[in-house]
Write a structure and sequence with these properties.
14-stranded mixed sheet; five-stranded antiparallel sheet; 377 residues; mainly beta; 44% strand; single chain; globular
Length: 377
Protein backbone atom coordinates (compact mmCIF):
# COMPACT_ATOMS: atom_id res chain seq x y z
CA UNK A 1 0.00 0.00 0.00
CA UNK A 2 1.36 3.40 -0.99
CA UNK A 3 0.29 5.70 1.85
CA UNK A 4 -1.15 9.20 1.43
CA UNK A 5 1.53 11.87 1.46
CA UNK A 6 1.83 14.73 3.90
CA UNK A 7 4.34 17.05 5.52
CA UNK A 8 6.36 14.40 7.38
CA UNK A 9 3.82 14.58 10.23
CA UNK A 10 5.51 17.85 11.28
CA UNK A 11 4.55 21.49 11.18
CA UNK A 12 6.94 23.91 9.51
CA UNK A 13 8.74 25.33 12.49
CA UNK A 14 10.38 28.63 13.38
CA UNK A 15 13.07 28.57 10.70
CA UNK A 16 10.59 28.36 7.83
CA UNK A 17 11.84 30.68 5.12
CA UNK A 18 15.03 31.86 6.88
CA UNK A 19 17.81 33.07 4.58
CA UNK A 20 20.86 30.81 4.77
CA UNK A 21 24.27 30.79 3.08
CA UNK A 22 25.42 32.53 -0.09
CA UNK A 23 26.27 30.10 -2.88
CA UNK A 24 29.16 30.54 -5.32
CA UNK A 25 29.18 28.97 -8.79
CA UNK A 26 32.62 27.40 -9.35
CA UNK A 27 31.61 25.22 -12.32
CA UNK A 28 34.12 26.95 -14.59
CA UNK A 29 37.01 25.40 -12.66
CA UNK A 30 36.06 22.00 -14.16
CA UNK A 31 38.25 20.27 -11.58
CA UNK A 32 35.77 17.93 -9.87
CA UNK A 33 36.22 14.72 -11.82
CA UNK A 34 35.65 10.97 -11.57
CA UNK A 35 37.46 8.26 -13.51
CA UNK A 36 35.38 5.30 -14.60
CA UNK A 37 36.77 1.78 -14.21
CA UNK A 38 36.23 -1.03 -16.65
CA UNK A 39 33.52 -3.62 -16.06
CA UNK A 40 34.38 -6.44 -13.65
CA UNK A 41 35.83 -9.37 -15.59
CA UNK A 42 34.70 -11.78 -12.87
CA UNK A 43 31.00 -11.08 -13.26
CA UNK A 44 30.49 -13.61 -16.07
CA UNK A 45 32.16 -16.30 -13.96
CA UNK A 46 29.89 -15.56 -11.02
CA UNK A 47 26.97 -15.75 -13.46
CA UNK A 48 28.05 -19.29 -14.32
CA UNK A 49 28.68 -20.31 -10.71
CA UNK A 50 25.50 -19.01 -9.05
CA UNK A 51 21.74 -18.85 -9.69
CA UNK A 52 20.91 -15.42 -11.11
CA UNK A 53 17.95 -13.81 -9.33
CA UNK A 54 15.65 -11.03 -10.55
CA UNK A 55 14.34 -8.01 -8.68
CA UNK A 56 10.86 -9.56 -8.80
CA UNK A 57 12.12 -12.77 -7.19
CA UNK A 58 13.85 -10.85 -4.39
CA UNK A 59 10.71 -8.78 -3.76
CA UNK A 60 8.48 -11.87 -3.84
CA UNK A 61 10.65 -13.48 -1.16
CA UNK A 62 10.39 -10.49 1.22
CA UNK A 63 10.62 -11.90 4.73
CA UNK A 64 10.09 -8.89 7.01
CA UNK A 65 7.28 -6.36 7.45
CA UNK A 66 7.19 -2.62 8.13
CA UNK A 67 4.27 -0.70 9.59
CA UNK A 68 2.66 2.57 8.58
CA UNK A 69 2.50 5.10 11.42
CA UNK A 70 1.17 8.64 10.92
CA UNK A 71 1.71 8.34 7.18
CA UNK A 72 5.35 7.23 7.55
CA UNK A 73 6.91 3.83 6.90
CA UNK A 74 8.31 2.56 10.20
CA UNK A 75 11.03 -0.06 10.57
CA UNK A 76 10.13 -2.96 12.89
CA UNK A 77 11.22 -3.32 16.51
CA UNK A 78 10.89 -7.09 16.73
CA UNK A 79 13.17 -9.91 17.83
CA UNK A 80 13.21 -11.13 14.24
CA UNK A 81 14.60 -7.87 12.80
CA UNK A 82 14.98 -5.03 15.28
CA UNK A 83 15.84 -2.21 12.92
CA UNK A 84 13.96 0.58 14.67
CA UNK A 85 16.32 0.51 17.68
CA UNK A 86 19.38 -1.37 16.41
CA UNK A 87 22.87 0.06 16.78
CA UNK A 88 24.38 -2.70 14.63
CA UNK A 89 23.18 -1.34 11.28
CA UNK A 90 22.49 2.31 10.34
CA UNK A 91 20.23 3.34 7.43
CA UNK A 92 21.73 5.96 5.11
CA UNK A 93 20.64 6.08 1.48
CA UNK A 94 17.27 5.98 -0.28
CA UNK A 95 16.10 5.51 -3.88
CA UNK A 96 13.08 3.94 -5.55
CA UNK A 97 11.64 2.26 -8.62
CA UNK A 98 10.56 5.78 -9.67
CA UNK A 99 14.27 6.58 -9.98
CA UNK A 100 14.98 3.33 -11.84
CA UNK A 101 12.61 4.41 -14.58
CA UNK A 102 12.49 0.96 -16.22
CA UNK A 103 8.87 -0.19 -16.15
CA UNK A 104 9.79 -3.79 -15.44
CA UNK A 105 11.14 -2.90 -11.98
CA UNK A 106 7.99 -1.12 -10.85
CA UNK A 107 5.41 -2.69 -13.16
CA UNK A 108 3.41 -4.45 -10.46
CA UNK A 109 4.58 -2.62 -7.34
CA UNK A 110 6.29 0.48 -5.96
CA UNK A 111 9.71 -0.24 -4.49
CA UNK A 112 12.05 1.68 -2.21
CA UNK A 113 15.71 0.78 -1.84
CA UNK A 114 17.42 1.71 1.43
CA UNK A 115 21.16 1.29 2.10
CA UNK A 116 22.70 0.44 5.47
CA UNK A 117 26.26 0.23 6.77
CA UNK A 118 27.36 -2.21 9.47
CA UNK A 119 28.49 -0.24 12.51
CA UNK A 120 28.94 -3.04 15.05
CA UNK A 121 30.37 -5.74 12.76
CA UNK A 122 32.09 -3.54 10.20
CA UNK A 123 33.41 -6.53 8.24
CA UNK A 124 29.84 -7.14 7.01
CA UNK A 125 30.10 -3.94 4.98
CA UNK A 126 26.87 -2.60 3.50
CA UNK A 127 23.50 -3.92 2.42
CA UNK A 128 20.38 -2.75 0.59
CA UNK A 129 16.76 -3.37 1.60
CA UNK A 130 14.25 -3.93 -1.21
CA UNK A 131 10.92 -2.65 0.14
CA UNK A 132 7.56 -3.31 -1.55
CA UNK A 133 5.24 -0.53 -0.39
CA UNK A 134 2.41 -1.77 -2.61
CA UNK A 135 1.69 -4.47 -0.03
CA UNK A 136 -0.20 -4.00 3.23
CA UNK A 137 1.80 -4.08 5.37
CA UNK A 138 4.90 -3.15 3.33
CA UNK A 139 7.41 -6.00 3.17
CA UNK A 140 11.15 -6.07 2.54
CA UNK A 141 14.27 -8.22 2.24
CA UNK A 142 17.93 -7.32 2.81
CA UNK A 143 20.52 -7.99 0.09
CA UNK A 144 24.26 -7.88 0.85
CA UNK A 145 26.47 -5.69 -1.36
CA UNK A 146 29.57 -7.59 -2.51
CA UNK A 147 32.67 -7.03 -4.62
CA UNK A 148 33.83 -9.84 -6.96
CA UNK A 149 37.17 -11.46 -6.06
CA UNK A 150 38.97 -14.70 -6.82
CA UNK A 151 39.75 -16.11 -10.26
CA UNK A 152 37.93 -17.28 -13.37
CA UNK A 153 38.00 -20.88 -12.14
CA UNK A 154 37.11 -20.01 -8.54
CA UNK A 155 35.19 -16.73 -8.55
CA UNK A 156 34.29 -15.33 -5.17
CA UNK A 157 33.25 -12.07 -3.50
CA UNK A 158 33.81 -10.02 -0.37
CA UNK A 159 31.68 -7.53 1.55
CA UNK A 160 31.81 -3.89 0.42
CA UNK A 161 32.91 -1.67 3.30
CA UNK A 162 31.42 1.70 2.40
CA UNK A 163 29.30 4.18 4.35
CA UNK A 164 26.58 3.95 1.66
CA UNK A 165 25.52 7.51 2.56
CA UNK A 166 23.56 7.94 -0.65
CA UNK A 167 22.20 5.71 -3.41
CA UNK A 168 20.58 6.18 -6.82
CA UNK A 169 18.83 3.47 -8.83
CA UNK A 170 19.03 4.31 -12.54
CA UNK A 171 17.90 1.61 -14.96
CA UNK A 172 19.71 -1.61 -14.06
CA UNK A 173 22.44 0.20 -12.12
CA UNK A 174 22.59 1.16 -8.45
CA UNK A 175 25.01 3.98 -7.59
CA UNK A 176 26.34 3.77 -4.03
CA UNK A 177 28.31 6.58 -2.37
CA UNK A 178 31.98 5.89 -1.46
CA UNK A 179 33.28 8.75 0.72
CA UNK A 180 36.94 9.11 -0.25
CA UNK A 181 36.66 7.69 -3.75
CA UNK A 182 33.40 8.56 -5.49
CA UNK A 183 30.90 5.80 -6.13
CA UNK A 184 30.47 2.05 -6.56
CA UNK A 185 28.11 0.63 -9.20
CA UNK A 186 25.99 -2.50 -8.77
CA UNK A 187 23.84 -4.23 -11.40
CA UNK A 188 20.40 -5.50 -10.33
CA UNK A 189 20.40 -7.76 -13.40
CA UNK A 190 23.19 -9.75 -11.74
CA UNK A 191 21.89 -10.66 -8.28
CA UNK A 192 22.69 -14.12 -6.94
CA UNK A 193 21.14 -16.55 -4.51
CA UNK A 194 23.59 -18.14 -2.06
CA UNK A 195 23.52 -20.78 0.67
CA UNK A 196 22.65 -19.94 4.26
CA UNK A 197 25.84 -19.92 6.33
CA UNK A 198 28.53 -17.95 8.13
CA UNK A 199 31.29 -16.06 6.37
CA UNK A 200 31.23 -14.50 2.94
CA UNK A 201 32.20 -15.64 -0.54
CA UNK A 202 33.25 -19.03 -1.89
CA UNK A 203 33.70 -21.69 0.78
CA UNK A 204 36.03 -24.69 0.80
CA UNK A 205 33.24 -27.01 -0.35
CA UNK A 206 32.48 -24.77 -3.34
CA UNK A 207 29.30 -23.27 -1.90
CA UNK A 208 28.79 -19.53 -1.43
CA UNK A 209 27.78 -17.70 1.77
CA UNK A 210 26.90 -14.10 2.60
CA UNK A 211 26.76 -13.82 6.41
CA UNK A 212 23.37 -15.52 6.39
CA UNK A 213 21.80 -13.35 3.67
CA UNK A 214 19.98 -15.20 0.90
CA UNK A 215 20.95 -12.81 -1.89
CA UNK A 216 23.96 -10.75 -2.92
CA UNK A 217 24.26 -7.79 -5.30
CA UNK A 218 27.71 -7.58 -6.95
CA UNK A 219 29.74 -4.51 -7.80
CA UNK A 220 30.32 -4.12 -11.54
CA UNK A 221 32.27 -0.85 -11.78
CA UNK A 222 33.53 2.02 -9.67
CA UNK A 223 34.28 5.72 -9.99
CA UNK A 224 37.47 7.09 -8.46
CA UNK A 225 38.13 10.72 -7.59
CA UNK A 226 40.33 12.27 -10.26
CA UNK A 227 41.94 15.61 -11.00
CA UNK A 228 43.24 18.31 -8.66
CA UNK A 229 40.54 20.68 -7.37
CA UNK A 230 41.83 24.18 -6.62
CA UNK A 231 40.66 24.15 -3.01
CA UNK A 232 40.64 20.54 -1.73
CA UNK A 233 39.69 17.05 -2.79
CA UNK A 234 35.94 16.49 -3.05
CA UNK A 235 34.42 14.39 -0.27
CA UNK A 236 31.66 12.20 -1.71
CA UNK A 237 29.34 12.12 1.32
CA UNK A 238 25.96 11.62 -0.38
CA UNK A 239 24.43 11.28 -3.83
CA UNK A 240 21.03 11.32 -5.52
CA UNK A 241 19.48 11.04 -8.97
CA UNK A 242 17.82 13.95 -10.76
CA UNK A 243 15.45 12.73 -13.49
CA UNK A 244 14.07 16.26 -13.99
CA UNK A 245 17.33 17.52 -15.53
CA UNK A 246 18.20 17.09 -19.21
CA UNK A 247 20.10 14.84 -19.39
CA UNK A 248 19.40 13.04 -16.13
CA UNK A 249 22.20 13.55 -13.62
CA UNK A 250 23.78 12.42 -10.36
CA UNK A 251 24.26 15.08 -7.67
CA UNK A 252 26.94 14.60 -4.99
CA UNK A 253 27.15 16.50 -1.71
CA UNK A 254 29.80 16.97 0.99
CA UNK A 255 29.45 16.63 4.76
CA UNK A 256 31.50 18.85 7.09
CA UNK A 257 31.12 19.84 10.74
CA UNK A 258 31.27 23.55 11.58
CA UNK A 259 34.68 22.97 13.20
CA UNK A 260 36.01 21.68 9.84
CA UNK A 261 35.44 24.99 8.08
CA UNK A 262 33.05 26.28 5.42
CA UNK A 263 34.20 23.97 2.66
CA UNK A 264 31.01 22.17 1.53
CA UNK A 265 30.16 21.91 -2.16
CA UNK A 266 27.66 20.16 -4.42
CA UNK A 267 28.56 18.72 -7.82
CA UNK A 268 26.38 17.52 -10.68
CA UNK A 269 27.46 14.87 -13.22
CA UNK A 270 25.51 14.20 -16.42
CA UNK A 271 24.34 10.65 -17.18
CA UNK A 272 24.26 8.72 -20.43
CA UNK A 273 20.66 7.56 -20.94
CA UNK A 274 21.77 4.60 -23.07
CA UNK A 275 24.45 3.06 -20.85
CA UNK A 276 23.13 4.49 -17.53
CA UNK A 277 26.75 5.42 -16.73
CA UNK A 278 28.18 8.89 -16.13
CA UNK A 279 28.95 10.79 -19.31
CA UNK A 280 32.73 10.45 -19.76
CA UNK A 281 35.39 11.60 -22.18
CA UNK A 282 35.68 8.70 -24.64
CA UNK A 283 39.49 8.93 -24.68
CA UNK A 284 40.14 9.19 -20.93
CA UNK A 285 37.04 7.61 -19.34
CA UNK A 286 36.91 10.70 -17.09
CA UNK A 287 33.65 12.39 -16.10
CA UNK A 288 33.76 16.11 -15.28
CA UNK A 289 31.12 17.76 -13.10
CA UNK A 290 28.89 19.97 -15.25
CA UNK A 291 27.84 22.17 -12.33
CA UNK A 292 29.57 22.85 -9.00
CA UNK A 293 28.57 25.21 -6.20
CA UNK A 294 30.40 26.11 -3.01
CA UNK A 295 27.82 26.81 -0.28
CA UNK A 296 29.55 26.31 3.09
CA UNK A 297 26.57 24.65 4.79
CA UNK A 298 27.45 22.21 7.56
CA UNK A 299 26.11 18.72 8.38
CA UNK A 300 24.72 18.04 4.89
CA UNK A 301 23.30 14.50 4.81
CA UNK A 302 21.57 14.55 1.43
CA UNK A 303 21.72 16.61 -1.78
CA UNK A 304 19.44 16.59 -4.83
CA UNK A 305 18.18 18.89 -7.57
CA UNK A 306 14.54 19.05 -8.66
CA UNK A 307 13.49 21.16 -11.66
CA UNK A 308 16.76 23.08 -11.37
CA UNK A 309 16.50 23.85 -7.64
CA UNK A 310 18.95 22.37 -5.12
CA UNK A 311 17.68 20.80 -1.91
CA UNK A 312 20.01 19.78 0.93
CA UNK A 313 19.02 17.86 4.06
CA UNK A 314 20.86 19.20 7.11
CA UNK A 315 20.98 17.35 10.43
CA UNK A 316 20.83 19.04 13.84
CA UNK A 317 21.73 16.32 16.32
CA UNK A 318 18.59 15.22 18.17
CA UNK A 319 16.68 18.26 16.93
CA UNK A 320 14.53 18.55 13.82
CA UNK A 321 16.43 18.59 10.55
CA UNK A 322 16.39 21.30 7.88
CA UNK A 323 15.93 21.54 4.16
CA UNK A 324 18.16 24.08 2.42
CA UNK A 325 16.75 25.30 -0.91
CA UNK A 326 18.68 27.18 -3.60
CA UNK A 327 18.02 28.03 -7.24
CA UNK A 328 21.04 29.04 -9.36
CA UNK A 329 20.84 32.77 -10.00
CA UNK A 330 19.40 33.56 -6.58
CA UNK A 331 21.46 35.61 -4.13
CA UNK A 332 20.88 33.39 -1.09
CA UNK A 333 19.61 29.96 -0.17
CA UNK A 334 16.62 29.44 2.15
CA UNK A 335 16.36 27.26 5.24
CA UNK A 336 13.20 25.32 6.18
CA UNK A 337 12.96 23.31 9.40
CA UNK A 338 10.54 20.70 8.07
CA UNK A 339 12.35 17.36 8.48
CA UNK A 340 12.35 14.97 11.46
CA UNK A 341 15.51 14.35 13.53
CA UNK A 342 18.26 12.32 11.92
CA UNK A 343 17.19 12.87 8.30
CA UNK A 344 19.66 11.52 5.74
CA UNK A 345 19.63 11.01 1.98
CA UNK A 346 16.97 12.40 -0.41
CA UNK A 347 15.12 11.04 -3.43
CA UNK A 348 12.38 12.52 -5.59
CA UNK A 349 9.36 10.78 -7.12
CA UNK A 350 8.58 12.77 -10.25
CA UNK A 351 5.18 11.12 -10.77
CA UNK A 352 3.85 12.28 -7.39
CA UNK A 353 6.11 15.35 -7.03
CA UNK A 354 7.21 14.02 -3.65
CA UNK A 355 10.54 14.39 -1.87
CA UNK A 356 11.47 11.42 0.32
CA UNK A 357 14.04 11.02 3.08
CA UNK A 358 14.83 8.49 5.80
CA UNK A 359 15.92 8.89 9.42
CA UNK A 360 18.87 7.11 11.03
CA UNK A 361 18.65 7.62 14.82
CA UNK A 362 17.93 4.43 16.81
CA UNK A 363 14.41 4.61 18.23
CA UNK A 364 13.20 6.90 15.44
CA UNK A 365 13.68 5.25 12.05
CA UNK A 366 11.20 5.98 9.27
CA UNK A 367 10.80 6.64 5.56
CA UNK A 368 8.96 9.94 5.18
CA UNK A 369 7.74 11.94 2.21
CA UNK A 370 6.28 15.35 1.45
CA UNK A 371 4.90 17.00 -1.70
CA UNK A 372 7.69 19.23 -2.97
CA UNK A 373 5.35 22.23 -3.26
CA UNK A 374 4.53 22.15 0.43
CA UNK A 375 8.14 22.58 1.57
CA UNK A 376 8.27 26.20 0.51
CA UNK A 377 4.58 27.13 0.63
Amino acid sequence: MHVPLHMFGLACLALHGTLAAKWEDISSDKDIQLKQSGASSLLKHLDDALPNTSVDQVVASANHAMTVQNGRYKWPATKDDDLFDSESWYPQGISSSADAGDSKYGKNHHLFLVSWYAKKDAEKGARVSFINTSLSPPRYRHVLLVEPTGSASKPSFKAVRVHAGGIAWYGNLLYVQDTDHGARLFDVEHMYEVKDGDGVGRQKDGSYHAYGYKYVLPQVRRYESYGRPKSHAFTYSCLALDRTSNPASIVFGEYYHAADGDYSRVARFALDSRTKLLHVNSDTAVATASQVFHHGEHRVQGAITVHGRYFLSQSNGDGDSDIIGFTPGDKDSTQYRVLPPGSEDLTFDNATETLWTLTEHPGGRYLVGTPIGEIES
